[in-house]
Design a protein that fits this description.
The complex is a heterodimer of chains A (about 290) and B (about 300). Chain A has about 290 residues and is α/β, with parallel strands linked by helices. Chain A has helices spanning about 1-5, 10-25, 35-45, 65-80, 95-110, 110-115, 135-140, 145, 160-165, 185-195, 210, 225-240, 250-255, 255-280, and strands spanning about 55-60, 85-90, 125-130, 175-180, 200-205, 220-225. The longest helix of chain A has 27 residues, at about 255-280. Chain B folds into three domains: about 35-150, no CATH class; about 165-210; about 225-285, no CATH class. Chain B is extended, with a radius of gyration of 31 Å. Classes of the chains: A alpha/beta (about 290), B mainly alpha (about 300). The interface between A and B is large, with 64 and 56 residues.
């Protein structure tokens, strides 16, 4: 048996991982989530704002990270919609435009009474701008230097939401969902930290350790990876139970089932790998 | 035939059979409903104009027989192409193959082309062309530009720098491209230096200055916060000592730096665990697409 494991084809491990992720997804296995303090800081940052506050939603990710980040972007959007906030969408990633469309779809389909036909008065899509952190530096000081028009080419001076908005410092909250560079760290470096803009972020697991040192002084809160998204969804459902019946509001929660099984598999494989290694050492295979 | 090849062939055939079975049940088709859209445009000197059009909204397959719902061939083709590309990329797990190479090349090409077109329309057209020639921009692509807008000649500088940058492609005088490049590098370094100093250096120093012992308002010691702060400060100091190479790591320094290594190892472990969680989330995202949107399981 140990001899078989010693020379195990790695494709068997891929197959095991596929089964570990696929089966809980098909079965719809979910586990209860308890929102952590960090997630509750994000929830309260959005929830404690008065209804109809101005929120910038910077969605800096692309379809490659959608599996990890879409649940938190959707949760941010739903939470802001429940609070009837005015939302300014923007992205520093070219493919982020379609991610913004997903969020606008949520606003129009799930909250039509607040947002349907209210483009320009309740939400606006500023679209993409090239320039990475240069764009952030501009929008925090003078929005219209970087964004003279919205995504449709409409002058920002002709849009009610942006007409009197000089820069991002005037908004009540900045929500950023980021898959890398440019993203959360750049928003902290050039936005939230130097100008004290209240900021919450949702980021990939890879970025999370980089962002942790900024909390709480330079960053109000963070949703770290799919776990953070699931906890945030749970926090919103706890506060607004009407979302319980909306399966789309549980994207992150549904994806935590596969996480548990896949992590158990991974831990087992690490332990097994070490057992084989120790056995090999006892056999004198490692000098 | 090798045993592993036989097993993998059986798995592939079973997967293909299941796919055909699901397709025969009507899955993998996209249905849409026409939604009316209305928008009102207003000009300062004219009556508001109302524009009406329709857009297609995707609906679940269970609603395919509802009135106003129709089969969408273009979206169905898109769904199958997306599923094919996903499986082709996954096929790399079995081994490198032409299908994977083909899909990878498509992905790189489409991403680059898309980014270029988007950047042209949002940056060069909007932020350069429309600023330098607002009159021409108004009668061509941006009718919303105010007729009194004057050209901003300051934007000639980025235009000239951009042209100089393209000089790199010229067989002679490619050194000219170094000037704008030097400007960009200098400006970027300056911008980043200030931000890093302010946020990552001074800001982080301020965040690290915290009391070892934390007391509540009634004077009682808060053990959890005190322990957290102590771990934090000891962790930061021991890691810094590890990277302090000006003195030999002997005596007390040796033990402190060894503690720093442990702290770093824990940090790397947490980083790795977060990465694993991220990768599993991406896999589950793709499988949700394959199972729900494509196969309708």
């Amino acid at each position: 048996m140990l001899d078989f494991l010693q020379h195990l084809d790695r494709r068997w491990i891929f197959l095991l991982m596929f089964i570990a992720v696929a089966v809980p997804l098909i079965m719809g296995t979910t586990f209860p989530e308890v929102p952590s303090d960090q997630v509750m800081a994000v929830f309260e940052a959005v929830d404690n704002l008065p209804d109809g506050s101005n929120v910038v939603m910077a969605l800096d990710y692309d379809p490659a990270s959608q599996g990890e980040l879409q649940p938190m972007a959707s949760a941010f959007t739903r939470h802001c919609a429940i609070k009837k906030h005015n939302i300014y969408f923007m992205t520093l990633w070219p493919q982020g435009i379609s991610m913004i469309q997903n969020s606008i779809g949520i606003l129009q389909d799930e909250y039509p009474e607040t947002y349907k036909g209210k483009y320009g008065t309740k939400y606006v899509n500023l679209g993409f701008r090239a320039g990475n952190e240069g764009v952030i530096k501009l929008v925090v000081e003078d929005l219209k230097k970087s964004y003279s028009t919205d995504i449709h080419g409409t002058n920002l001076d002709n849009i009610p939401l942006t007409k009197n908005l000089k820069n991002i410092q005037q908004v009540d909250l900045l929500c950023n969902v980021s898959a890398g560079y440019p993203g959360s760290q750049e928003w902290v470096l050039y936005g939230s930290s130097p100008f004290d803009i209240p900021t919450v972020v949702g980021c990939t697991g890879v970025q999370a350790p980089i962002m942790l040192p900024y909390i709480p002084d330079q960053l109000t809160g963070m949703l770290a990876a799919i776990k953070g998204a699931a906890e945030y969804e749970q926090a919103i459902i706890n506060a607004y139970p009407e979302l319980e019946s909306n399966p789309n509001a549980k994207e992150g929660l549904v994806r935590m089932g596969p996480q548990l099984v896949a992590h158990l598999l991974l831990i087992s494989l690490i332990l097994l790998g070490n057992v084989i290694y120790i056995w090999e050492r006892k056999q004198g295979l490692h000098q | 035939m090798k045993q592993s090849t036989l097993i993998w062939t059986i798995l592939m055939v079973a997967g293909g059979g299941f796919l055909l079975f699901q397709a025969s049940k009507g899955n993998g088709r996209v249905y849409v409903r026409e939604i009316p859209v209305e928008a009102t445009a207003s000009q300062p000197d004219s009556e508001p104009q109302v524009y009406q059009w329709t857009k297609n909204q995707q609906v679940p397959q269970s609603e395919k027989d509802d009135p106003g719902v129709s089969f969408s061939l273009s979206r169905t083709v898109g769904l199958w192409v997306a599923a094919f590309c996903t499986l082709a990329i996954f096929s790399f797990l079995y081994g490198d193959n032409p299908l994977y190479k083909f899909t990878e090349a498509i992905f790189v090409g489409v991403s680059a082309g898309y980014a270029m077109v988007v950047a042209f329309w949002t940056e060069i057209a909007t932020n350069l062309f429309a600023k330098l020639l607002p009159g021409l921009a108004r009668i061509t692509f941006y009718p919303d530009i105010d007729s009194t807008t004057r050209p901003e000649l300051l934007y000639l500088i980025p235009l000239v720098l951009s042209i100089l940058l393209l000089w790199r492609l010229s067989p002679k005088g490619s050194w000219i491209a170094r000037w704008p490049l030097a400007f960009f590098i200098g400006a970027t370094a300056g911008i980043r230096l200030i931000s890093y100093l302010e946020t990552d250096f001074i800001g982080q120093l301020q965040s690290t200055v915290m009391p070892f012992l934390v007391f509540a308002s009634d004077g009682s010691l808060l053990w959890d916060k005190s322990l957290k702060n102590t771990v934090f400060i000891v962790g930061v100091l021991s890691c810094m000592v590890y990277f302090f190479f000006s003195i030999e790591h002997e005596g007390i320094i040796k033990y402190v730096s060894r503690l720093g290594i442990w702290v770093l190892m824990v940090t790397f472990g947490a980083s790795f665990a977060y990465t694993v969680m991220g990768r599993i989330a991406l896999l589950s995202g793709r499988l949700v697409f394959l199972f729900n949107d494509w196969l309708g399981i």
